[in-house]
Write a structure and sequence with these properties.
Shape: globular
CATH superfamily of the largest domain: Rhodanese-like domain
InterPro entries: PQQ_CXXCW (IPR022376), Rhodanese-like_dom (IPR001763), Rhodanese-like_dom_sf (IPR036873)
Signal peptide: 1-16
CATH topology of the largest domain: Oxidized Rhodanese, domain 1
Strand content: 5-15%
Number of domains: 2
Strand order of the largest sheet: 1-6-5-2-4
Largest sheet: 5 strands, parallel
CATH class of the largest domain: Alpha Beta
Order of helices and strands: HEHEEEHEHEHE
Radius of gyration: 15 Å
Domain Rhodanese: 117-163
Helix content: 25-40%
Distance between the termini: 40 Å
Number of helices: 5
Protein name: Rhodanese
Keywords: Signal
């Protein structure tokens, strides 16, 4: 079975298909699948609890939903009001420039405060937000709250969504 397989099995969340994860424990395949538990060191937040937070005041809201290819080249998304959109930053095999863009952007938006609460989300049943929450937690941000239901859960509460463009300085 080999050491690499054993390491992969250890890095993947309990009960998950180990082949969908890389050796660092990030989901790299089948991103639209049920997500049951938050990454280690990250707290799951319910949509009702997230709805009482004031984005930019009580917490920084980070949307990591990928760009919809059907937008005709103009990336735009409907998201939680006040959220900052970092598309593609939730991939497991992330491009280093995209990872740097996310981490630098969060540092800028928190004004360097690693203790500012960060709410990370995308859509319901989306592992990209799980990956991004794990990535930010590993970068030293605390607390990280993972909104597993994403903007879908927000909308399901009857709350409005608003259009947003990707955060500035997006890598091409």
């Amino acid at each position: 079975m080999g050491i690499a397989w054993m390491m992969l099995s250890i890095a993947a969340p309990a009960g998950a298909d180990a082949s969908a994860f890389d050796s660092a424990g990030y989901r790299i395949a089948h991103y639209r699948a049920p997500t049951r538990r938050a990454p280690n060191g990250v707290t799951r937040i319910a949509p009702q609890a997230a709805a009482v937070l004031r984005p930019g005041v009580d917490a920084l809201f980070i949307d990591v939903t990928p760009v919809d290819p059907g937008t005709g080249g103009k990336p735009e998304r409907m998201t939680i009001p006040g959220a900052h959109w970092f598309p593609e930053s939730g991939r497991g095999g992330i491009d280093p420039a995209v990872e740097r863009w996310l981490l630098d952007g969060v540092t800028r938006l928190t004004t360097g405060r690693a203790d500012m609460p960060v709410v990370v989300f995308c859509l319901a049943d989306c592992w990209m937000s799980w990956n991004a929450a794990r990535r930010l937690q590993r970068a030293g941000y605390r607390p990280i709250w993972w909104l597993a239901e994403g903007s879908d859960g927000w909308r399901d509460l009857g709350l409005r969504l608003e259009p947003v463009s990707p955060e500035r300085n997006r890598p091409e």
